[in-house]
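Board notes (copied after class):
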Amino acid sequence: MLSTLSCPRCSVALKPQRLDSKTAWLCASCAGLAINLAALRTDVEQHVVNALWQLARNGQPSALTCPSCRRGLSLIHYADSHATLEADLCLSCQLVWLDHGELDAIRRRYPQSPQRPSQPLASQPSFAEMKAIDDLHAIGSPADLVDFVLRVIWSTFH
């Protein structure tokens, strides 16, 4: 992860901002923000966050790059009977880029249910763990396994 996060829309340095007990990174120019997928999970219904992750894994490339690692983001279109959402997600860093107002809209449409509070984060698998499990399920041949191991090694040291 790079030390300075840059806005994928206007290249302005993002500033860390506390949102409740979480940190997000805000662009002073366009008011977009980057938030970690695990942090989003504490505010939004789990099934929505899980769907965003799955859609990102199968999504189309976004025109935007990750504020942290500068890799291409995955463009997500999520629709259900309540709303249609669009976001960009980095499969490597698990950062979600939301344009101005989108986080508030998601929080209003899909708040964590008060009668079903989320489990403590320690008891939930992290998104890194979920991603690793998904990657392992996708391995179909010895060549895929070698590719997977090389990607893990590469992402660990870069």
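Comment from the instructor: The radius of gyration is 16 Å. DSSP finds five helices and seven strands in the chain.
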